[in-house]
Metal ABC transporter ATP-binding protein (Sporosarcina oncorhynchi), 254 residues
Amino acid sequence: MKNILIDCENVGFHYGHSTVLEDINLQVKAGEFWALIGPNGSGKSTLIKIILGLLAPDEGVVKLFGKSIGTFKQRERIGFVSQKSNSFNSGFPATVLEVVKSGLTRKVGLFKSFSKQDERHALDALKIVKMDEFSNSNIGELSGGQQQRVFIARALVGEPDLLIMDEPTVGIDQKNVASFYSMLNDLNREHGIAILLVTHEIDLVTELASHVACLNRSIHFHGIQSDYKNMDDDDISSWYGHPVRRVHAPKEEV
Ligand SMILES: Nc1ncnc2c1ncn2[C@@H]1O[C@H](COP(=O)(O)OP(=O)(O)OP(=O)(O)O)[C@@H](O)[C@H]1O
């Protein structure tokens, strides 16, 4: 049986009197690629913050790699990339390689220097995201899409089993979004890294993801991609709150 990496059991959360999450049950297992979709304000980022331990649930339990979140110590097993990562201006004084190596700080220690092996790991991570030729470039000189690839490399350098991303393509121009997702697909299929991806790009991502979870305060659907595709657009629209018409790729292109 596959290991369960994330296990949310009956999770609930409120901001003041406002219920944001209600009775969330979700399991992400090793090697799976989950798309977490839902309209604006549906609680996606809040759920991610709870999974990362940044917010405590008011109800229910979250377990990571089989351990309750309070006792889970192997943080390096989880890489996180947010939508706000790609915000450096052109004068930011750090090279791409330095940014990626900063992902090893937890392992190496804050005031210790990096070894040659750390540097090799950082370059390997840059190769995986096809950014090794930019290793000496200034991070601020790269496009938003290139910066996000570097942040994926920083998340990968600790060799995580699970990558969590909250709308990582915000700020990436449309022509680079498809190649960004195809890189995520390689990470999942070739490197076996499980992915939990929050996105609004439902047509693109649900072609790639193995599983889909539809959230609007509670989970309205969660399951394998083909079951999601077989759902009626009207059912999806009813919980989404506005009409949703999905574009299905022709079978031979999938
Ligand atoms: N710090 C906060 N204090 C009070 N309410 C908040 C706070 N953060 C978020 N909310 C509210 O909680 C609800 C869920 O927000 P959340 O950011 O989780 O949604 P989301 O699905 O990620 O939205 P989006 O797709 O627009 O990013 C929203 O109604 C939001 O206004």
